[in-house]
Amino acid sequence: MENKYLLEINHLSVSYGTHRIIRDVSFALKPGEIVCIAGESGCGKSTLIKAILGIKQLQTNVVEGNIVLDGRDITNLGVEERRQILGTQIGYVPQNTRGSFNNIRTYDVQYKESLRAHNVPFEREKAIQLFNRLNFPDSDTLLEQQPWEMSGGMNQRMAIGLAVLQGPKLMLCDEATSVLDVTSQKEVIEELAKLRDELGWSILFITHNLGVASHIADKLGVMYAGRMVEYGNTHELLQDPIHPYTRALLSAIPGKDRKLPVGLEGRPPLDGAEWEYCNFTPRCAYCTAACKEKTYELKEVEPGHFASCAEGRTAV
Amino acid sequence: MSEAPLLELKNVAKSYGKGRYKKDVLKDINLTLNEGEVLGIIGESGCGKSVLLNLIACLEPVSGGHLFFKGEEYTGKKPKDVCQWFQVIFQDSEAAFDPKMTIRKSMRENLSLLSKDVSNSDKKIDDMVAIMGLDTSLAERYPRQLSGGQVQRMSIARGLVTEPNMILCDEITSALDVSAQAMILQYLNNLREARGLTMIFVSHDMAVCSTFCDRMAIMKDGEIVEIGTPEQIMDHPQHEYTKLLLEAVLYVK
Predict the structure, then answer these.
(1) What are A65-109's pLDDT values in tens digits?
(2) A243 neighbors A258 (Cβ within 8 angstroms)
(3) ipTM score for this prediction
(4) In chain B, which segments carry CATH 3.40.50.300?
């Protein structure tokens, strides 16, 4: 049977120890698609990436559900098997790439070392070709430089370059542009989009910046306190947000009209993933007593557009 | 002659290091700020925007130029001489509070530095905390027991409780979620409307500045390359760098 999806997340619940962080999150990624998961700090978006990576030391514990990569269940792979798919099948770009490179060794050495660990031959020409294709400045001398000489944006690009050379089908980016200046951020995003167009990559992109998401993603998921509250095509979701939280989040972003953004009082519950009913109720403007009777459920409100709640929605 | 502006900077420069290690961080900055005005300073990392705030608040000495407050020169004064005029609010407020003191105690300390009379300080603190939209019981907590947005609002309250002439905000919303950021902008805007608060708001986010600043200054490599109202800067940018920055703003499509 042909696999329609590259990555499938089915009813995933993740905990650290006994503390549940993510509950019942499902979505799927087709080859060549960019899916963005957005949400505020503490909503569990990074934990989601850690669970997919499944590295033992990260101590994520999948309680329920499974993660399927290209038709193969990778939820409970052993250390050796996991080592074979990380890097070569799943690439990862973290937020802080300063910590991923040794500051005082050349990229050349570090690229070689990392590629050798994944049994990928290092070809200098190939690397430089890639840098050229991605419009990296000074591409022929980049490999001789050391991370401390570089700006944050360049270092981030070198990390993306290293991930690409290992030839994964799926790329996980955890806030990969959040530490960058606006100008570098835009460039890195454009490069990622280019990679997708040219190499047919699939990218799972985690961000708290809906502006970034709207520029890069085909599909967008909004998470709140460990739960997916809305999921759909980026354009439709942003044009016609259904869930009260998505609407509040959007009105808190300064827009082109230069109106003062509207804030949202309070903060997400820390044990939000444990709640049976909608965990946005304490901050929701449309919350009624009935909300606390209903259990959380992601419903297909419109074709391909899912939301767990449609209270107070005004039709567009 | 018209009244002197609240703050005036003339040819202010700052450099670090000596000889061939000398690095000019700020070059020839000229700025005036009137009472009740909110000025946004925008630039990428390393352009010198935080250094400029430090110089204004006398946290660092200037290497050249002159600073004027209400027409009087104050170049070379100590931070404690100018802290009744300026209060600085930093990006990482949790680090700006003493972790072993309750918020209220930190605020009391700030008040007692400026005046001998501390009899009504608790009332002042309660009022200011309420103005920032927080429950006064939160002042009894330690910084780590509050969320990032709450600590930042407490830190603004701590700055304002001494009734300074102006506050200097250094990237105060950059580390926060959009919803917390929007709350802070709202409260600052209320304060401006109610009390005519003067502010310098340093940020790298043009969209944020454009929503509530009266004027925006664009900085690059230690120089102000363009200054104007949000309409001028956002709709009719003149300098190439401003255009570049504007293109990079990712609005939600």
Answers:
(1) 999 998 899 988 888 889 888 888 999 998 888 888 999 999 999
(2) no
(3) 0.82
(4) 1-85+167-253
Question: Which class does domain B1-85+167-253 fall in?
Answer: alpha beta
Task: Tell how strand A170-174 and strand A90-93 pair up.
Answer: parallel
Beta carbons of A189 and B250 less than 8 Å apart: yes
Q: Best interface-test mutation with B: which of A183, A192, A246 has the largest number of B CBs within 10 A?
A: A183
pLDDT bucket at B1, cuts 50 / 70 / 90: very low
Nearest-by-CA chain B residue for A188: B248
Nearest residue on chain B to A207, judged by CA atoms?
B177
- Classified as helix, coil or strand, B241 is helix
Q: What average pLDDT score do residues A258-283 get? A: 86
Please report how the helices A107-117 and A152-165 are oriented relative to each other, as an axis angle in degrees rounded to 10. Answer: 30
Does the domain spanning A7-102+164-307 belong to CATH 1.20.120.80? no
- Maximum distance among all alpha carbons in chain B? 55
Token pair belonging to A263: 């804030």
Angle at A251 (CA atoms; ends B185, A307), nearest 5 degrees: 145
The whole-angstrom separation of Cα A157 and Cα A310 is 40
Give strand pairing partners of B24: B15
Residue of B185, B186, B252 with shortest CB distance to A210: B252
DSSP letter for B2, please.
P
With an 8 Å Cβ cutoff, are A267 and B149 in contact? yes
What is the rounded average pLDDT for all residues in chain A?
88
A182 and B149 within 8 Å at the Cβ level: the answer is no
Q: Is the pLDDT of residue B2 over 80?
A: no
Q: What is the pLDDT of residue A3?
A: 62
Q: pLDDT tens digits, residue range A190-202?
A: 888 988 888 888 9
B106 CB-near residues (< 8 Å, 6+ apart): B97, B98, B158
Cβ-Cβ contacts under 8 Å, B248 against chain A: 182-183, 185-186
pLDDT score of A181: 83
